[in-house]
Amino acid sequence: MTIIATREIDDLGRVLLPVELRREKMWIKGDLLAFYKSGDTIIIDVCEKAKEPQCKICGKQEQTLRIGDDSFCEDCAKLRRD
Prior knowledge:
The chain is an alpha+beta fold. It has helices at 19-25, 74-81; strands spanning 33-38, 41-46, 64-67, 70-73. It contains two helices and four strands, in the order H-E-E-E-E-H. The chain starts with 18 loop residues before the first helix and ends with a helix.
């Protein structure tokens, strides 16, 4: 197991996930994360029901494209480019 970063827990119990990890796992703002426990190990992953990307503008989950950290359906991506 490799340590990729260390983070402090803030006063509200929040931990900032390292950008390297978010990029590797392709996690974006709004993803719903699930926390699993196996013995003393904590596993974090995107919830199965939330794995399908959702358009940032209209909310559609079909045929989405990733642009930067956001996902857009084909129609909204076209509007964004115009």
